[in-house]
Amino acid sequence: MNHEKTPVIKCENISVVRARKEILCDISLHANKGELVAILGPNGAGKSTLLSVLAGDLQSETGSVFFGDKPVTEVTNRELARLRAVLPQRVTVSFPYTVAEVVEMGRGPKLGAKDEDLVENAMQRLGVAEMRNRLYRTLSIGEQARVSMARILAQDTQLLLLDEPTAVLDIGQQEKLMQIVRSLVEEGRTVIAVFHDLNVAMSFADRVILLQNGRHAASGTPRETLTPETLSSIYEHKIDVIRVNDDTGPVVIPGPRRN
Amino acid sequence: MSELRRLNSRTVAIVLSIALVIVVFNALTTGAYTIRFGEVFTVLFQGPAETSDANSISHAVFWNVRLPRVALAIVVGASLAVAGVVMQGVFRNPLAEPATVGVSGGAAVGAVIAITLGLSKITLGVQIFAFIGGTLATAIVYGLSRVDGKTDVVTLILTGIAINALSGALIGLAVFIADDDQIRTVTFWSLGSLGLATWRAVAVVLPLAIIGIALSTKFARTLDLMALGDRSAAHVGVPVERVRLQTIAIVGLLASSAVAATGIIAFVGLIVPHILRLVLGPKHRDLLWSSALLGAIVTLLADLAARTLLAPAELPLGVLTALIGAPFFLWLLRKMRTSESTWS
């Protein structure tokens, strides 16, 4: 894998306090070129908040976020749009825009000559080109998720921040989407994604960071980090990691339901 | 619903332009005094200077009554429709409109205050006050509907309701203290009419309308991106809060100058963009200019109906548009609640 000296994005000692409650405490994280980093943890662990801080939406109380060498506070909104794309959990589009129009929105305020190709490629890659003239709001949630992913891709940024990209997809669509994400990473892009599904992280992530109550709980490669001991402690439930066969990676399952 | 039928924007441009010409001719010839079709050209080419020809009555009616009225209807209709498009785009809601959000009410209050203070004798006194009232209402709506640096749409509509109630109360108060003459003028402002159209009114509104409409076209693409919601629009590079401030200023300009000329003419800014979104799709590049055209047509037609339906009496134009517009608003509200909600 192609690791450069300066990470594409890094954050150091991030803390976020909301309504006197500490949501994130002293979190550091980095992601290199050609790397998929997964943010994991139980509900309310601060995963989405961390992603918002990385995206530049949210100012942290302490610590800072760097895009390359540049602190996020010195990057304008428009520059930021060229550096990173963000996929929220769900996007509602007001007014009856078509799929093609929504994907084109990824190109931002100023449309140029090469935009058409980027939009077309993004639609082809996500398999939404055939529904280009359908209205976004009439699509199923799964279809909307793919169109939104195509929009993110059309933005053509080095860094992609994805908040649970597979949450609303069935298992087949989930695998297809993750293979697309994986191929983006192999092409040299950087992806930081929040996942609920530990098995998706196990199969596709290069590194994982586990959060618990806003604090760093564990991090490293998925196989080293997602162990029965660590997961059982973080998720406060007995969790097993088993090997099915040599072709598939380890699988995370809840522990025995009867003791 | 997912089956998409949209018309080519060029076809729509041609159809709307032809329709506008036809409606303009009808509006010029029809009325208490009928000007024959052929006469229109004769008096038009005679120029505005007074004549003592056989057609001197037609000439006077044409230049002093009909033409300014038609011109004002076009300018005000285009302004209101474009203000509606911009407001709906920036608040992501097809129900936002200068009148429903309270901007028109604020402008009417400004006008009414000027009248009761006896400022209607001063040149442009009423217009300036209307402008101040409308812009102030826009600022209040904007300020109050923001929570944590974001504009919440439900709060926006509710703020509009409150502003409208306050406007109604203030106008009522003005009627209470006004003398008979003033009451007639106040009624004019709150009901909305093109009956007092003069060249001077046209001269005031026209430049403001041109500026407002021209500025709004600069935001066409940005308004499309706003449909993604504040966060995602910001993610693709839209300076959301700045855009909101600038577009609201444009709405204030367009709506206030329109109300300053004619009083409250509600729902033009609601119906026109809605129809065109069905025909052309929601992209603002096409929606803005086509709304200006259709806004002019609808206002001309409504005014034509207002002055001919009960002739020789004249229905207040604002009453007529509200009679048609309010049920339309309710229908739209129901449709939005049953289909996918766009309230957030």
CATH superfamily of chain A: P-loop containing nucleotide triphosphate hydrolases
Q: Tell me the name of the CATH class of chain A.
A: Alpha Beta
Output mean pLDDT of chain B. Answer: 85
Continuous helix count of chain A: 9
Taken from the alpha-carbon principal axes, the silhouette of chain B is globular
DSSP strand content of chain B: under 5%
What count of structural domains of chain B? 1
- Integer-rounded radius of gyration of chain B: 20 Å
Oligomer: heterodimer
* Class from secondary-structure proportions of chain A: alpha/beta
Major sheet summary line of chain B: 2 strands, antiparallel
Structure write-up:
The complex is a heterodimer of chains A (259) and B (344). Helix content of chain A is 32%, strand content 27%. Chain A has 259 residues and is of the alpha/beta class. Chain A has 9 helices and 12 strands. Chain A has a 6-stranded mixed β-sheet with strand order 6-7-8-3-9-10, sandwiched between helices. Chain A has a 4-stranded antiparallel β-sheet with strand order 2-1-4-5, covered by helices on one side. In chain A, strands 11-12 form a two-stranded antiparallel sheet. With 344 residues, chain B is mainly alpha-helical. In chain B, a hairpin with a 2-residue loop joins strand 1 and strand 2. The chains are: A alpha/beta (259), B mainly alpha (344).
